[in-house]
Specification:
Largest sheet: 7 strands, parallel
Strand content: 5-15%
Shape: globular
Number of strands: 7
Radius of gyration: 24 Å
């Protein structure tokens, strides 16, 4: 009887230990889920997305709104910005529209001020503004060259400066994510101006990250290769873009979906990237890793 009693006590202790272990595992799992949710959650944070009327910028605006951000949809065409903002609101999220010409520093400052709330600066700037022009470098019009650089590089600086000035004045912190391109490091025919603008953008991203880190401002960039935007799809359909050759260059065997670029932007904007600044994140399916391409 004594042995039976001891055996029952031992079984009871084992059962109790398993129950405690299961409870601990459940608690740990729940805490992890909550932590992930908190990392992704931008609820109530104010985000500005420039170049958000179409393509990658549009998907970035939707991605940020879907995790709770209050999004200012900014574009040089105010009507297109308003249409995108209306779609975001129709989905149950919060957005407002603004027209901005990024080459005008005063308009950039006005954009940032409009996205502020009760003296608090916006939390996030996503810059997708660019001017894409293809031309042989030997004959490219100097004015066209200047315009591409002006929008892609100068405009990026004017936006970043206006945002950083507002953040430092309010004593808060902020994040900037620029949209770059693999053209910054991998030369492509007839894209000298575009590649130069993106290379400058990446150098500026690193410089601003270094200068503004002490102010609590993180600055990063995402560099995609070819993405299935409206423009790329149209060029491919017309035969102006040799999509089959491009896909052969990409180890993952396809071009990117715009939402995949938006996901990378969302990561850099989130608290998951809280110790990441001054980095250029290639989202290219392995395009820049391929050293075998002979074309």
């Amino acid at each position: 009887q004594a042995k039976q009693h001891q055996a029952k006590q031992h079984q009871a202790k084992q059962h109790q230990a398993k129950a405690h272990q299961a409870k601990a595992c459940a608690t740990t799992s729940l805490s992890r889920e909550e932590a992930v949710s908190m990392d992704d959650n931008l609820s109530g944070q104010r985000a500005i997305v420039v170049g958000a009327a179409q393509g990658i910028g549009r998907r970035c605006a939707f991605a940020l709104a879907n995790v709770g951000a209050i999004v200012t949809v900014a574009n040089i065409d105010g009507d297109l910005a308003a249409a995108t903002a209306a779609e975001i609101c129709a989905a149950g999220n919060v957005a407002r529209a603004a027209a901005v010409d990024v080459v005008d520093p005063a308009q950039c400052a006005e954009l940032v001020a409009g996205a502020a709330d009760a003296g608090a600066a916006p939390d996030l700037l996503v810059n997708c503004a660019t001017l894409y022009r293809e031309a042989p470098a030997l004959t490219q019009d100097p004015n066209e060259w200047a315009q591409v650089i002006h929008v892609g590089l100068n405009g990026a600086f004017f936006l970043s400066q206006a945002f950083a000035q507002a953040v430092t004045a309010s004593g808060g912190t902020g994040r900037i994510v620029h949209l770059s391109s693999v053209s910054s490091t991998h030369s492509m025919r007839d894209k000298a101006a575009y590649g130069a603008a993106k290379a400058g953008l990446e150098a500026m991203t690193k410089a601003l990250a270094y200068e503004w880190g002490p102010h609590g401002i993180r600055v990063n960039a995402v560099a995609p290769s070819h993405v299935a935007t409206e423009t790329i799809n149209r060029l491919a359909a017309s035969g102006a873009l040799p999509l089959d050759q491009i896909v052969q260059r990409i180890p993952l065997g396809r071009i990117a979906d715009p939402d995949e670029i938006a996901d990378a932007v969302l990561f850099l904007a989130s608290d998951k990237a809280r110790f990441i600044t001054g980095q250029i994140l290639a989202v290219d399916g392995g395009y820049t890793a391929n050293g075998d391409w002979a074309g």
